[in-house]
Amino acid sequence: MEKTLRVGIAGSGTAGPAIATFLARAGHEVTLFERAPRKEAVGAGFLLQPTGMSVIKRLGLLDELLPQTAHIDHLFCRNTAGTTLLDLHYQELQPDLFGAGTYRPTLLDLLLSAAEKSGVHLKWDHEITSLDGHFLNDIHQKKHGPFDLTLICDGARSRLRAQTGIPSKVSRYPWGALWFIGKRTTDFDPKTLWQCVEGSSWLNGYLPTGTSQDFLSLFWSIRMDDLDQWKTRPLQEWKDHVSRISPQAESFLQQVETMDQLQSAAYYDVRMPHWHTSHHAILGDAGHALSPQLGQGVNLALMDAATLADCLQEFPLQKALTQYSLRRRNHLRFYQFATRWTTPFFQSDLPLLSTIRDLGFPIAMKVPWLRQQMVTTMAGLKTGPFSTLSL
């Protein structure tokens, strides 16, 4: 490891507090800047994969987190005709493998608490708006630094990404999602991520999200340019549509009483050739945002943090940053490609793709090698068509 580094981090989503904790524990001086005025409970449930869990375990937080999550062993998806498209179990890879349905604020609380206990200086209400050499400027025109290393973790809509000079291509997916978190009803298996699709235009998903209240996260795909018009329609019209696609949701939907309870989320596709400069590194969605179709976003961000921490432990700064991009390349490239390829089959205006999906997916599930690749992809372990990570 090189000398103690002064590290400035912009953004406290997932990658930010994770890498902050790793680096502070390694003896570096770390300051984490967050634009929110305070810590707030926001965000839907997500599926923490074995990859993400391995990083949480390294941080020493897994034993505290798991009791607050839902143990997911099964992904199931069917269409409205009743055809099973996906029926995948983690245990097909190894008996002790599973996913964890996690409430996003639960993980954030643990990560931020660990960061503060590790000596990270956490600055709320400090939105970083520009890079200035080895300094960071915030929205209040205050300059911070100098920093030996600046880490950009400010999400898919990053204001700082372009300022690094690294080429990037950023586009918003036409389709986003409505989401709602409520009390899980007995109609839903507490260990199954359950989905149903109607054509290629409608996808409805339910993820048990754990915590002592036994939450269930509902996701409903929607074209983002239809969102304003959707809000003008009667709530019951939407509930009837959901119930038609997913009849077991009828009692769960009774918890949705107003449109305001349904939150919307837009998704972006971010492509970059690498994720470092001589004194910057980009982590998480800021560097490689993708559709949530494969459920990998948080997990990839955690893997970014662990990889960068390892590189900084093993090499001097310049070589560490180069190694960070090299080590993350195959894993990120695979999931970016796989997500881009898969998403239109589930969220698009192309009915032909849903026909191909409904015919092809059931056949693929019966081919042992293809089925194994599906499960390995679900678990976040793929690094290429014929290569995987080892946990």
Classified by CATH, the class is: Alpha Beta
Give the number of DSSP strands.
22
**What average pLDDT do the residues reach?**
95
CATH domain topology: FAD/NAD(P)-binding domain
CATH architecture group name? 3-Layer(bba) Sandwich
* Amount of beta strand: 25-35%
Itemize the secondary structure elements and their pairings.
Elements: E1 6-10, H1 15-25, E2 29-33, E3 45-48, H2 50-58, H3 62-65, E4 70-72, E5 74-79, E6 84-89, E7 99-103, H4 104-117, E8 121-123, E9 128-132, E10 135-138, E11 143-144, E12 149-152, E13 169-172, E14 175-183, E15 192-198, E16 202-210, E17 215-223, H5 227-231, H6 235-245, E18 263-265, E19 268-271, E20 280-282, H7 285-288, H8 297-314, H9 317-342, H10 351-365, H11 368-378, E21 382-384, E22 387-388
Parallel strand pairs: 1-2, 1-12, 2-8, 5-15, 12-20
Antiparallel strand pairs: 3-7, 4-7, 5-6, 9-10, 10-11, 13-19, 14-17, 14-18, 15-16, 16-17, 21-22
Helix pairs in contact: 1-4, 1-8, 2-8, 8-9
Q: Mind explaining what this structure looks like?
A:
The chain has eleven helices and 22 strands. The chain is an alpha+beta fold and 391 residues long. The chain has a single domain (6-172, 267-388), classed as 3-Layer(bba) Sandwich (FAD/NAD(P)-binding domain), CATH 3.50.50.60. A seven-stranded mixed beta sheet has the order 6-5-15-16-17-14-18. The longest helix is centred in the last third of the chain and has 26 residues, at 317-342. The chain is globular and about 60 Å long. The relative contact order is 0.17.
